[in-house]
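Hello, quick one for you while I still have it in my head. I'm working through a protein record and want to make sense of it properly. Would you mind checking whether the tokens look sensible for this chain? I owe you a coffee for this, so here goes:
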Amino acid sequence: MAVEDGVVLGRLLGQLCECGYDNTHISDLLKVYETLRKQRNVTVRKLAEGNGQLYHMVDGPEQQKRDRMLGEHDWWDDKRSFPWVFGDLPYLHELYGFDTLKSADEAFARWCDGSAAATA
């Protein structure tokens, strides 16, 4: 997430410079950055919390059930439900197929359009 955050921040600041904005717009752009990154960070944090539960179960009946479910899970079946997102193929495609640069470009374009409209 830190790498993605850095990529997005660099992209937004780079676009700010390329479009001729000066540093008085940085605080507004940082609000765009915060809004853009918040949901993605919350989603990944929830995944990490779930993985913590999944990987750190105390040995016993729950752990044995987990091990059995992991062994029986068809990892390539994107229609089968699984109690942990770790085994949810569509979710993983969405998570790891996320286009960070595209999201930054779209957010900047929306901000830029709104900023231009506000100054017109």
